[in-house]
Amino acid sequence: EVVLAAVNRSGSALEYADQELRNDSEVVLASVSNYGASLQSASKDLRSDRDIVLAAVSNDWMAITYSGERPRADREVMLTVVSQHGQALSYAGAGPREDREVVLAAVRSCGLALRVACPKLRADREVVLAAVQSYAAALQYASEELQRDREVVLAAVNRSGSALEYADQELRNDSEVVLASVSNYGASLQSASKDLRSDRDIVLAAVSNDWMAITYSGERPRADREVMLTVVSQHGQALSYAGAGPREDREVVLAA
Predict the structure, then answer these.
(1) Buried b (16+ CB within 10 A) or exposed e, 206-219
(2) Which is the most buried residue in 62, 106, 112, 186, by most CB within 10 A?
(3) Per-residue pLDDT tens over the stretch 152-182
(4) Helix pair 50-59, 75-84: axis angle to 10 deg
(5) Nearest one of 114, 116, 178, 170 to 147, comparing CA atoms
(6) CA-CA distance, 20 to 232, in Å (whole number)?
(7) How far is C-alpha 173 from the chain's CA centre?
(8) DSSP assignment of the chain
(9) Distance between CA 23 and CA 247 in Å, rounded?
(10) 98-147: per-residue pLDDT in tens?
(11) 20 φ, ψ to 5°?
């Protein structure tokens, strides 16, 4: 009765209870219901009890780190966990990692969770779209087929242009994809095809976001007055990257 009163007040008190009471399901359930992390003080048997672990992770997803293996293979337990913190999918057993609803919940919470999903779900278009909309770099864990999917890649680079490096080569030569990418992350110009690194409009968009993108461009944009004016207005010493024309242009040099 004393221990129940204590853990009902604060579950953290479980660590001070006698070992026998740490194996009492009523006491432990009361404890983890208000302080999930107290699962670490429960007996080994109760750390593998589904209902107790479910109560613990409902309070604090991190309680899964103290559980036995059996609850980690339970669909409802892991769905509760990953809905709070997607990357916790890494604690799941094989079953939940292959469960579409569990993985969807995980990647919606944190796209990086795609990394530990089963290969079948890394090739699932809806799952991957959800992942890259949450965390663009999750594109690197998608199947090769989906790295060639224009809509998936566009969703990723619109989230963060840095994801362009994980796209298929064909899409790195797609002007719409690359323009979307460099517009929010100029440095992604380095991942574009050689042809597009010499495309005036794309380079202009890139350097408007980050002057250093000029370091990845071809020669033609460096000879363009507007491109170089945009660059040197941000960083004068970048005039060193300019072609002969802009170096002889009074307005460009004055801006630099």
Answers:
(1) bbbbbbbbbebbee
(2) 106
(3) 999 999 999 999 999 999 999 999 999 999 9
(4) 10
(5) 170
(6) 73
(7) 25
(8) -HHHHHHHH-GGGGGGS-TTGGG-HHHHHHHHHH-GGGGGGS-TTGGG-HHHHHHHHHH-GGGGGGS-HHHHT-HHHHHHHHHH-GGGGGG--HHHHT-HHHHHHHHHH-GGGGGGS-HHHHT-HHHHHHHHHH-GGGGGGS-HHHHT-HHHHHHHHHH-GGGGGGS-TTGGG-HHHHHHHHHH-GGGGGGS-TTGGG-HHHHHHHHHH-GGGGGGS-HHHHT-HHHHHHHHHH-GGGGGG--HHHHT-HHHHHH-
(9) 79
(10) 999 999 999 999 999 999 999 999 999 999 999 999 999 999 999 999 99
(11) -60, -40
Amino acid type, 226: E
